[in-house]
Specification:
methyltransferase, S-adenosyl-L-methionine, Alpha/beta_knot_MTases, single chain, rRNA (pseudouridine-N3-)-methyltransferase activity, five-stranded parallel beta sheet, 5 helices, 5 strands, alpha/beta
């Protein structure tokens, strides 16, 4: 199985980008992982929130294959602790899917088309974080989840 993380907009902060790269490399020991950045919408100031979400939604849908399982990182999603998230990952790996796709939306969230296509929603916290930081937090939690599944000491340092 491959895990893909789709995110809108690049990471401007060099320290965050460096940490994200570090965890991407670590994840490579456990699973095939891809981080794919969808460029910000050009001239978004001229668009309504709904128009921007729809345009981003189209770009997200264009990155999916028919067999992908789509999970949204959404403030209204189910919250997990790290151990239950590792079980969630294991369940998806056991199901035989080819690619599990997690998506971090744009500044206004997701379009209706994306909500309809999604097979699940996960919330990392009730707090609001920058979309750039969410990338780091989520990739770190993926890594932590795999170390839990492999019974490695990282989770209890």
């Amino acid at each position: 199985m491959t895990i893909k993380l789709l995110a809108i907009g690049k990471t401007d902060n060099k320290q965050l980008a460096s940490l994200i790269d570090d965890y991407k490399k670590r994840l490579g020991f456990y699973i095939k992982f891809k981080l794919e950045i969808i460029p910000d919408i050009k001239q978004s100031k001229n668009l309504s929130e709904v128009q921007q979400k729809d345009k981003e939604g189209t770009l997200i849908l264009n990155k999916l294959t028919p067999t992908d399982v789509l999970i949204l990182l959404d403030e209204n999603g189910k919250q997990h602790d790290s151990v239950s998230f590792s079980s969630y990952l294991q369940k998806h790996m056991n199901s035989g899917i080819k690619q599990l796709v997690f998506v971090i939306g744009g500044p206004y969230g997701f379009s209706e088309a994306i909500y309809k296509k999604a097979q699940g929603k996960i919330s990392l916290s009730k707090m609001t974080f920058s979309h750039q930081m969410i990338r780091l937090f989520f990739i770190e939690q993926l890594y932590r989840g795999f170390t839990i599944l492999k019974n490695e000491p990282y989770h209890h340092r």
